[in-house]
Amino acid sequence: MMLSNIPHMQRQKLVILERVRNDVGRFTNPVFNAFLIATAVYLPCYGKLMLFSTSGALDPLNVLLVLSAVALVLMSPAFALAATVEVYFARRIAKASRASRNIEFA
């Protein structure tokens, strides 16, 4: 039996992964929140533009539409990176959790 396969070590790996995920979450959560806010501003403004806009009319919501579109474009790489990191940690934690349960009952 290898030292890394004992149940105590598997639980320690799981705890470490969860703590790292929480620490990284301090940086990824603001990215998710900012992206969500920009999306929440963009979608209603775009809907209003497509449904109720007249040609030649300058509406303040069009300015919000442009600003939120620029924010979405600029934040897209950060959002993709944050989502990738979150998925990576979710899979690693799920794998470590399954491994610790299998060793305990084996």
Describe the structure.
- The chain has two helices and no strands.
- The chain has 106 residues and is mainly alpha-helical.
- The chain has one domain (3-105).
- The mean pLDDT is 86.
- Keywords: Membrane, Transmembrane, Transmembrane helix.
- The chain crosses the membrane at residues 31-51, 63-89.
Give descriptors for this structure.
mainly alpha, rod-shaped, membrane, transmembrane helix, transmembrane
Write the layout of secondary structure elements.
Elements: H1 7-52, H2 60-105
Helix pairs in contact: 1-2
Concise synopsis of the structure shown:
The protein is built from two helices and no strands. By secondary structure, the chain is mainly alpha-helical. It has one domain (3-105).
Radius of gyration: 22 Å
Please tell me the overall pLDDT.
86
Strand content: under 5%
Please give the domain count. 1
Helix/strand structural class: mainly alpha
Shape: rod-shaped
Total helix count? 2
